Amino acid sequence: MLHLASQSPRRRELLAQLGLDFGLLDVDVPERRAPGESPADYVSRVAREKAGAGLLRVMANPGAVVLGADTEVVLDDRVFGKPADAADAAGMLRALSGRRHEVISTVWLVSAGRELHASNRTLVTVERLSDAQIAAYVASGECFGKAGAYAIQGRFAAHVPRLEGSHSGVMGLPLHETATLLRAFGLLD
């Protein structure tokens, strides 16, 4: 059986789009970038640690497969995780304003005897945002709990004139890459 090692409602919704039944695992993995660790390596490591932590919880179930994923916003080698508060969110949005940044999303599938992973990189261009636009967006609350302090599937999409890559990857689970991994595990046709 497939298990999703995430409590993200977006990941649950996206995985459900593939038409699979899956269980949910709540895992607690520290999300801290190691000194000298590249953004891509960091995202992959965290996704793998989530999958591994989930697998430890279901090891008694033969055939259990766990999906772990991580998505981060990267600008000039700086990783923008989830904002700590409104000031942090506003600072992230100011940094992204009028710039193109990268969103890296990595998925790991692990079982007792196998593991595979895939990554997706998407370029997102954000229009220049006024202080009033940033304040209004932060006040909406949509920025919280989201890497880079924005939700591409929400009202922030109105500020994104160009996206080059995977919309679902920016949301938190690149569906093409995920489906490819699930097929390799024999879990999807």
Automatic annotation (TrEMBL):
Site feature Important for substrate specificity, where: R10, T71, Q153
Gene3D superfamilies cross-referenced by the UniProt entry: 3.90.950.10
A GO MF term: UTP diphosphatase activity
UniProt catalytic activity: dTTP + H2O = dTMP + diphosphate + H(+); UTP + H2O = UMP + diphosphate + H(+)
Cofactor needs: a divalent metal cation
Stored InterPro entries: ITPase-like_fam, Maf-like
CDD domains: Maf
Superkingdom of the source species: Bacteria
Gene Ontology cellular component annotations, sorted alphabetically: cytoplasm
Active site residues of this protein: D70 (proton acceptor)
EC number: 3.6.1.9
Localisation per UniProt entry: Cytoplasm
Listed GO biological process terms: nucleotide metabolic process
Bilayer-crossing regions: none
Enzyme class: hydrolase
Keywords in alphabetical order: Cytoplasm, Hydrolase, Nucleotide metabolism
Alphabetical list of NCBIfam families matching this protein: maf (TIGR00172)
Family (UniProt): Belongs to the Maf family. YhdE subfamily.
Function text: Nucleoside triphosphate pyrophosphatase that hydrolyzes dTTP and UTP. May have a dual role in cell division arrest and in preventing the incorporation of modified nucleotides into cellular nucleic acids.
Designated name of the protein: dTTP/UTP pyrophosphatase
